[in-house]
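Write out the 3D structure for:
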Amino acid sequence: MNVKNKPYQTIWLHPDDATIVQTIDQRLLPFEFRIVDLKCFEDARSAIADMVVRGAPLIGVTAAYGIYLALLDHHAHEDLTSYLQECVHRLTATRPTAINLSHAVDHSLHAILREKNLNAKIDVALKTAQDMAKDETEACRKIGQYGLAVIENLGKKKKNRVVNILTHCNAGWLACIDYGTATAPVYLAHDRGIKVHVWVDETRPRNQGARLTAWELSQHGVPHTLITDNTGGLLMQQGKVDIVIVGSDRTTLSGNVVNKIGTYLKALAAKDNNIPFYVALPSSSIDPSLQDELEGIPIEERNREEVEFVEGLTERGLERVRICKEETTVLNPGFDITPARLVTGLITERGICEANKESILSLFPELVTSAENQRSED
């Protein structure tokens, strides 16, 4: 995607130094566009933990690059295999809900351990991370194409009037490598000349909608309006929402969707108002080990300060403001679970399917083997 007419992806290898990985510091957007260097494993791990990078696909690719950086910095560790396993453990502990992270580090570790020579391990770690980035980008492009057809059909039904799309959090190119998931169909529709407008949830407590999605859409010239998280239901009642498209951090084989907290409420409102509710996700966000039991899904509990404070731009720069008394009890789960029965369809890189096991496996039959392997390991 473009930033001030210059093309960017969200993570890349430094063009002049292959020991440095570069990414965009998403904590500063939309007020400052800053590129940061990841020079070692700890830089990559903390970038994920501290939300320099966020979004399931990007988290996964960043973790894979983290394994590459760990290998470059292996000299202080006598037992390389144990060191890598420790790195994997530390990475997966940073953001436990997004399944892409564990998929990425497991895939990277397996590829590395097949090589005996250290230089070969380093080479395969880098190639694995770069291949993951390419695969995620291509998956998002295809998600955009399949989702475009849905928006096109809505546009025809509305006789070419504006298609109003509601989304939640940031499932755009910042959360992925390029295109995004939920936003990919929007960008392609806009580029096709279809009249679209996006209702952007602010998405408390970190305001990823207000700070990231709105910024993304403005960079691409897509008409949009920022709303509070609680406005969507009213807009649906008023007939001002034609479709809801959200992303996913983890989707079970039975079609239950784990996404940013507040997604479940949007799905309920959409169901009550007979509005299609779609989830756009790459197959890397599907967890075949979880089929029916919601209790097995890890829901990340985030720092209470995200709720206690709001951050914004003042004359002195970015500042935090406390919104409650210090002794107030705070709960801050990062995600909720939308039951499959509320999901109209899953938009994937292989097509659109229903949110159930049979339909998911019709597009991804290899997940049967993945699920069986996972159960045997457990």
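The chain has a mean pLDDT of 93.
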